[in-house]
Design goal:
About 60% of the residues lie in helices and about 15% in strands. With about 180 residues, it is an alpha/beta fold. The chain has a single domain, classed as P-loop containing nucleotide triphosphate hydrolases (Rossmann fold), CATH 3.40.50.300. A five-stranded parallel beta sheet has the order 2-3-1-4-5, with helices on both faces. The chain binds adenosine-5'-diphosphate. Adenosine-5'-diphosphate (ADP) binds next to helix 2 and helix 3. The site of adenosine-5'-diphosphate (ADP) has 18 residues, from helix 2 and helix 3. It catalyses: AMP + ATP = 2 ADP.
Length: about 180
């Protein structure tokens, strides 16, 4: 089973991902975590990505697609923060088709922008200041939101309310998967 968690920055993808990988034995593939690991390791890629991430823009499709391609295994995957553009979604479909696999379900976590800004300001990551958060929300609207149409057309989109108690959100996701 391959699942995509789709949602704005701060919508709770990472938190719900941790629960889903445990419950369903999936491999967690978070491009944000991979990029932060590159930064922590001081690699060339990390050095390139750092400024882009801190400005709230997206790292190039080529870089994140290559990171994902290198990590696809035999187990089902939970994609968290990827794909973020139509080009990434198309590349992912090709990668999976080439392996005789496919995306099964896309879970969209819906959370209002003001709740997101409040949540992220308490999280305190280095790219979590208010100006960057607003920039990332704008990038999400422009570049990632169109993916809901893309997956809706494939009949794979399940949109759920991502606000409220963590356990309640997890329960909504489980219901959407069955
Ligand atoms: P959040 O969902 O809270 O924004 P992420 O960890 O998913 O956090 O992403 C942090 C940053 O990493 C993004 O703002 C972007 O700069 C970069 N990034 C992560 N995933 C991708 C991706 N799939 N494509 C392009 N850039 C990405």
């Amino acid at each position: 089973m391959n699942i995509i968690l789709l949602g704005a920055p701060g919508s709770g993808k990472g938190t719900q991902a941790a629960f889903l990988i445990e419950k369903h034995g999936l491999t967690h593939l978070s491009t944000g975590d991979m990029l932060r690991a590159e930064i922590a390791a001081g690699s060339d890629l990390g050095k390139q990505a750092k400024a882009i991430m801190e400005s709230g823009q997206l790292v190039s499709d080529e870089i994140v697609i290559a990171m994902i391609a290198a990590r696809l295994g035999d187990k089902g995957a939970l994609f968290d923060g990827f794909p973020r553009t139509i080009a990434q979604a198309e590349a992912l479909d090709k990668l999976l088709t080439g392996r005789g696999s496919q995306i099964d379900t896309v879970i969209e976590l819906q959370v209002g922008n003001e709740e997101i800004v409040q949540r992220m300001l308490t999280r305190g990551r280095s790219d979590d200041n208010e100006a960057t958060i607003r920039q990332r929300l704008a990038v999400f609207e422009a570049q990632t939101k169109p993916l809901t149409d893309y997956y809706q057309k494939q009949g794979k989109l399940r949109s759920i309310d991502g606000s409220g108690e963590l356990a309640a959100i997890s329960a909504r996701i489980e219901a959407a998967l069955h």
